[in-house]
Amino acid sequence: MSKKYVYLFQEGDASQRQLLGGKGANLAEMTRIGLPVPPGFTITTEACNEYLASGKQFPAGLWEQVEEKLAELERQVGKRFGGRPPLLVSVRSGAPVSMPGMMDTILNLGLNDTTVEYHAEATGDPRFAWDCYRRFIQMFGNVVLGIAHHRFEEIFFEHKRRAGVEADYQVPAEALRRVVEDYKALVRQEAGREFPQEPREQLRLAIQAVFESWNNPRAIVYRQVNKIPDDLGTAVNVQSMVFGNMGMDSGTGVVFTRNPSTGAKEFYGEYLLNAQGEDVVAGIRTPQPVAVLERELPAAYDQLYRVCHLLEQHFKEMQDIEFTIERGKLYMLQCRTGKRTAQAAIKIAVDMVHEGLITREEALLRVEPAQVEKILYRSVDPNAQLDVLATGLPASPGAAVGEAVFDPDRAEQLAREGRRVILVRPETTPDDIHGIVAAQGVLTSRGGMTSHAAIVARGMGKPAVVGCEAIRIDLAGRSFSVNGRTVREGDVISLDGGTGNVMWGAVPLVDPELSPEFRELLAWADEVRTLGVRANADTPVDAQKAREFGAEGIGLCRTEHMFGQGGYHPERMPVVQEMVLAETAEERRAALDKLLPMQREDFYGIFKAMEGLPVTIRLLDPPLHEFLPHQEQLAVEVAVLRATGGDPAQLEQKERLLRKVRALAEMNPMLGFRGCRLGMIFPEIYEMQARAIFEAAVQLVREGLRVEPEVMIPLVSHVEELRRMRQLVEKTAEAVFAETGVRVRYTVGTMIEVPRACVTADEIAAEAEFFSFGTNDLTQTAFGFSRDDAEGKFLAAYLQQKVLRENPFVALDQPGVGRLMEIAVELGRKTRPDIKLGICGEHGGEPSSVDFCHRAGLTYVSASPLRVPIARLAAAQAAIRHGRR
Amino acid sequence: MSKKYVYLFQEGDASQRQLLGGKGANLAEMTRIGLPVPPGFTITTEACNEYLASGKQFPAGLWEQVEEKLAELERQVGKRFGGRPPLLVSVRSGAPVSMPGMMDTILNLGLNDTTVEYHAEATGDPRFAWDCYRRFIQMFGNVVLGIAHHRFEEIFFEHKRRAGVEADYQVPAEALRRVVEDYKALVRQEAGREFPQEPREQLRLAIQAVFESWNNPRAIVYRQVNKIPDDLGTAVNVQSMVFGNMGMDSGTGVVFTRNPSTGAKEFYGEYLLNAQGEDVVAGIRTPQPVAVLERELPAAYDQLYRVCHLLEQHFKEMQDIEFTIERGKLYMLQCRTGKRTAQAAIKIAVDMVHEGLITREEALLRVEPAQVEKILYRSVDPNAQLDVLATGLPASPGAAVGEAVFDPDRAEQLAREGRRVILVRPETTPDDIHGIVAAQGVLTSRGGMTSHAAIVARGMGKPAVVGCEAIRIDLAGRSFSVNGRTVREGDVISLDGGTGNVMWGAVPLVDPELSPEFRELLAWADEVRTLGVRANADTPVDAQKAREFGAEGIGLCRTEHMFGQGGYHPERMPVVQEMVLAETAEERRAALDKLLPMQREDFYGIFKAMEGLPVTIRLLDPPLHEFLPHQEQLAVEVAVLRATGGDPAQLEQKERLLRKVRALAEMNPMLGFRGCRLGMIFPEIYEMQARAIFEAAVQLVREGLRVEPEVMIPLVSHVEELRRMRQLVEKTAEAVFAETGVRVRYTVGTMIEVPRACVTADEIAAEAEFFSFGTNDLTQTAFGFSRDDAEGKFLAAYLQQKVLRENPFVALDQPGVGRLMEIAVELGRKTRPDIKLGICGEHGGEPSSVDFCHRAGLTYVSASPLRVPIARLAAAQAAIRHGRR
Fold first, then answer.
1. Which of A793, B37, B306, B691 is a good FRET partner for B207, with 20 to 30 A between their CA atoms?
2. Are A795 and A682 part of one and the same domain?
3. Does the record carry Nucleus as a key word (chains A, B) (predicted)?
4. Of A643, A789, A798, which has the smallest distance from its Cβ to B666's Cβ?
5. What is the DSSP string of B466-523?
6. Residues B738 and B756 both lie in one domain
């Protein structure tokens, strides 16, 4: 006996989504609870997968089961497939995961030259019957036989012209007969075969076409972008037709049980009388808001309203419902969980808790953290007047403002001068990567959501608009034109990577705000989650923002910005360079003495902003040459001065600087003289930083405030490094406490960011009161990927070719990097059961990584301030899914 | 009751080396087996450690035990300490590990103004007695009271001048009395106290001085260089004095039971009549070969010969023996395992097996693999006439020839032009590192065995002579002078890092040869070891050498040299650059088509040299920009051409090249676009290489030869990379087999050289028939150390400060990198129990790392050809120590 491949709607239920697809399972569920669903059956995803795997052969027994269910259908509706009155069916795809508009649909199947007459007879409307036949041939011709839509449209248009009518529904029956003849001729000519007259052959071919649509290019790309596995397959729904276009007592529409944009609890949707679904899509007639239906067809409206309410109560979810009214009678064609904006998702979830429909935990699971991200970017001020030049694909969210630049070298150069630029290119290649790095955002005129520019920008978290085909770029002329206007290099433009808008000038940006519902949801998240959430913040302003967003401390306060990196504190740069260029420890100490009060002030501000919460401060990490001028540029200047006989004093000074820059230069700075290695060789630097920390802490304690400094030693690969740096910090702390007579409680710990630290975490834990996983560097060292190089040079290709499913710098690589973390957690706890374990790489704000951190037993995650709400939500979901820890 | 801190010689034996020190344990053993040893006792290393740990307090009970043993000594020799006749003792240090000359000795202790008269009376020789007293004050004054030797020597010299004599033994008794008075006055003046007259106080102070000598700077440095733990402590041997300077029937000497230089079985050594040990050292009289003693004192000679033979038979080891003859009677003062050259060690071990003295396994354990290294370097031709300019410290073995260069930048520049240079600097700092990298060898005029230059050169395996104080370097003048001769920049010099010699001109170098004994020993090693030994070889010549040295295959054949890297095949460079600069796959393929026959020829030669043995070929690994000109230099050329209005055509060409070089440039090339990432993005490169491999293999099979290619994919971090590259190789192999009609057996495997590969080795093993651990890169990624940067910038300091005990690029870091390997071995075997596991990093030829590989269950190690014998020996030792696997 063969497997069961075909289910009547009354045989299934909502739980069988995997087997019957989303649409099929819900049709079954609606049938089961007694709603008016036109009868039909579903062919399983298993059948589809077996068909595709076997080289396009129907699995044994499938067709027999289809025949059997078809016979059942005939009994239920009292019509005959290919007979009199004719049973007509729709054939629709329905995957386990919603892929809207990606798959194909055929309506009115079962019509042929004979049954069209029976259909006319049964409906008493020959015009209607012939229009059904016309539509069927057109859809079948397109979907099954691969004939372009516009070929049919041209024929139809010509007949309308001849008939002297404008609207489709005005075309008389006789004209439609001729259209059908011409359509069949087109099929003969293009497909090299007659249009199949046998309904069973039609059905068979349609089922095959739906199966095969699983692998059409649109569907493949959609799955790629939305990370849907390729092996789910699609189910096929065969359903008896009902008609919304049988007069003004008929109609069709789509409704949502709540407003999908705002989440407001209101009956929301549109309908058209005397129309089929495709007429709505065609956009010739304007649909009416569903409220109008109450006046036009009050009985149907009442029934619809009741059914919708019942469905929401039944599924305990906002529903997106397709319905048809055939001669006053309501039919449900589809219901599914409604798509919604992030704002709506949050409001609906919270409201439903208040309505007693779902629990808080369910509400927390209803909101997708990744979606929430979109409302947490700095975004274009909604009250701003925008001068939109063009709209492209929204490839990477966020908003960016800068001067248009058309060349990556130029972008890099201007950025080095501290200017903000937007890189504009027809498309990007690995050769442009330094320009992308330097830019605030990227705009391309070609390429889709998986183009190089899109992937690289998303990886770097930079806003990008791609495939903006309206703009014409003149690289040689360093400009682009759009609608008669020209943007030249240096003109300021703005991008909105969330909408795809490209705007003239600098648009005002606003910080995100949390709605009251979101605050409420996050408060529930805080009750549920066991994973702490901190923020990565380097300034008092960031710390304040983080606290506002619910951060329970700072997990990573980098000190390099305080040293002037990245254009912060330009006034400090000369002192920092003095320190870097020092030839002796005394010279270095003299420069450090000048830096001490500045650092102390930095820490004072941050401690104050985070009063009462822990603050993890990482001592200086980047290689010192990052604070010096660029070597190649300097070498060029020296050579040119020499060649042109320039000022000897200037030459000598530059030569001296170049020598030092050369001496500090490194082949692989990422793996070079940085992190605690700086502190080991120049202990005076870390000593100054420790002193600044403790002096600031003492000052606050004297002011009656509570501080909780956690001093973090970066890039430890061997316990001995930590042991010595810890001693240095402790000695300095004791000195400050002795000088001031005030003691401050503090801890010393380390970043775990190289694999050796993971596998020797038992030794390291003996010296560390806390570990903080630096997963950016750990990902670089575990893979042997330099992020600077990989993302542009080969990682984009790896993602395009699915060598890797995810960018490991965005979502934590759990089997590799995660495994190393698990080893470290286990070894660390073995030595020090109460060790505090955190993560401060960018992964700390990415939902799947947060889930991993919960499972791995970490104490907290630390994310950038704007991602703190995401982390709170993701941590709560992890606790619900995997249990509290 | 207190611990036993003091052992009479008759209470101990040779097994108590740890407690009694090497000297004490052997004195006990000789006493135990009835040899004529002057009675004495040993204070344990425990007593020393407790003394040092307690802040220089004698442990409770120690002194009482010394008193007790002293009384026993008085009974044994019939003399009294501080009495009549006076018991005189020597006080000598003796650590568990031999530290020759590093510790202090005091003779004739027990003499004072009174006992010197008793001593004169007992010996009947006042001159002798006063000379003993003089020597004692001098040694005691130096060792215990810290008065410089030369201060005593000046006094003694003045008295000799006044007495009108030259040799010490000619000074009359009366003059010696006055010397003693002046010595005592010197002590009073310098030490601020009287010379202690009380023998017990002398003894107590002497014991303390020996204890404390454990931490004198010489001893600390010696332990550091020789990797001896700091916590062993030293024992103190107190022994009744015998005198070799009591006339022409007395004497003293040192003999070896075999020739320590050649290993020949002959009685070898020197002696002096009427002398004490220190007279031999002073070098005023020339010692006689021990054979002469047979004529001068035949009875003593006979006895000595018999005792020495007995000791060798007893210890089953070549002995280094100190003896004294007092008035015709032989006394044994010390015996220990004799130091020997590598050649001698091998010959002695093999001879002793043939003599039935030891087993083959014992012989294998007798030869230190690290020592053998010295005879496996290319070395100075022993038959060459050498013009030695000066001799410094032999800091890093091997010989080097090159032009003297005095500036690291210049060294780098000349090396880039393909010239061989020797970097000459007063000393080196991290700023010189690029010069050391570029040089064949390093010569410094300052610094010791642990100076920056010494550590860095050893780490890089480059010959170095340091602290060569005879040369005077004029950096500004780019020259050095020595003994009136001047070496200028560009003059060729040679270094011998094994002897410390610096030679004028290019000395001829010779390849090492294996002696018959060494071949025999290695044959035994091959019987015992279970770990395979292969070689890393890139050319047929290297492969031939490796085979000659016993390699059982090639574990790593790098293909980058075949692409012209490192100055090999300069004629290929233009073709390789054409390939690198290609803008399209077609252009790239065209260049690859030209490279194919060259690669095929390379592989043909290597397969032929290794006929019948496996050859692992690694597909192209380095980043492509390594094949292009240097970016900064190019940028400078372009800028200068622009500034000076140079040839526009040349400018344009260079600008184009610069653009490409820039596009390929990387922040961290070590972690960049290299390894299999090249093959993933440009599959045509790996395809060409695979084709060359299989075409060469087919050609050899047609010639009737056996080939065993193993195709190795480098830098795999994710199984998907290996899966795809493996498919590419297999597809190419099938194509070649189909074209030629010949099939060749081959395997495909991967390097394991990034931590992610280790922790996902179970997945990777599904696609790999073998793993080869690339421990150079694995060390870089596990630690986060870029070798290029670390060794110069901070690793030397880490080693000097003992943050790390060993350079992890020399000896495998077992707790970290080794742990990652163990994880990979376990996971790999879980998926594929018969997976072949090798190592091809430089560690494959380092003994402690080979030992680890044996324990970790690897199949083979692969080492550079010259290190193959070391690996064979080390592998045998590992099998003996840890059991065969």
1. B37
2. yes
3. no
4. A789
5. E--TT-EEETTTTEEEETTEEEETT-EEEEETTTTEEEES---EE-----HHHHHHHH
6. yes
**Residue B345 domain flag:** no
Tens digits of residue pLDDT in B436-490: 888 999 999 988 776 788 877 876 778 999 989 899 999 989 999 998 999 999 9
The conformation of residue A562, written as its DSSP 8-state character, comes to G
pLDDT per residue as tens digits for the range B692-704: 999 999 999 999 9
Range(s) of the domain holding residue A268: 251-337
- Catalytic option among A335, A468, A840, A853: A840
- Beta pairing partners, A424: A443
The string over B544-578, giving b where at least 16 C-beta atoms fall within 10 Å of a residue's C-beta and e elsewhere, is bbbbebbbbbbbbbbbbbbbbbeeebeebbebbbb
Which among B240, B269, B301 is the end of a domain? B240
CATH number where A274 lies:
3.30.470.20
Residues A164 and A257 occupy one common structural domain: no
CATH number for B470: 3.50.30.10
Residue A679 lies in a domain: yes
What span, in angstroms and rounded, lies between the C-alpha atoms of B422 and A328?
99
Confirm whether A452 is a catalytic residue: yes
CA separation for the pair A404, A442 (Å, rounded) = 10
Whether residues B613 and B641 fall in one domain: no
Q: Phi and psi at residue B658, in whole multiples of 5°?
A: -60, -40
Chain B residues near residue A673 by CB distance under 8 angstroms: 789-790, 793-794
Which residue has tokens 């989650």?
A529
Instruction: Name the residue facing B668 among A635, A789, A804 (closest C-beta).
Output: A789
Q: Does residue A513 have a pLDDT over 90?
A: no
Total domain count for chain A?
A: 5
Whether the CB of B775 is below 8 Å from some CB of chain A: the reply is: no
Counted across chains A and B, CB pairs separated by less than 8 A come out at 216
pLDDT at res. A284: 59
Any A CB within 8 A of B385 CB: no
- Per DSSP, what are the bridge partners of residue A89? A109, A240
Residue B348 lies in a domain: no
Task: Region of A464 please: left (phi>0), alpha (psi -120 to 50) or beta.
Answer: beta
Residues paired with residue B270 on neighbouring β-strands, in sequence order: B254, B289
DSSP assigned state of B792: I
What CATH number corresponds to the domain at position B31? Answer: 3.30.1490.20
Q: How far apart are the first and last CA of chain A?
A: 49
B77 with B41, same domain: the answer is: yes
Known catalytic membership, residue A150? no
A793 vs B434, B673, B763: nearest CB: B673
For A436: left if phi > 0, alpha if psi spans -120 to 50, otherwise beta; the answer is alpha
Query: Best residue in B425, B431, B662, B781 to probe A by mutation, most A CBs within 10 Å?
Result: B781
- Three-state DSSP at B532 gives strand
Beta-carbon separation of A635 and B640 below 8 A: no
Please check whether residues A709 and A574 belong to one and the same domain: yes
Contacts of A815 in chain B (CB under 8 A): 759-760, 763
- In B, minimum Cα distance to A777 occurs at B784
pLDDT tens, A465-491? 998 989 999 998 999 999 899 999 999
Domain co-membership, B732 together with B811:
yes
Instruction: Tell me which chain B residues have a C-beta less than 8 angstroms from the C-beta of A820.
Output: 755-756, 759
Give me the CATH number covering residue A831: 3.20.20.60
* Residue A353 belongs to some domain of the structure: no
Beta strand A501-504 with A492-496 is antiparallel
Residues A547 and A586 in one domain: yes
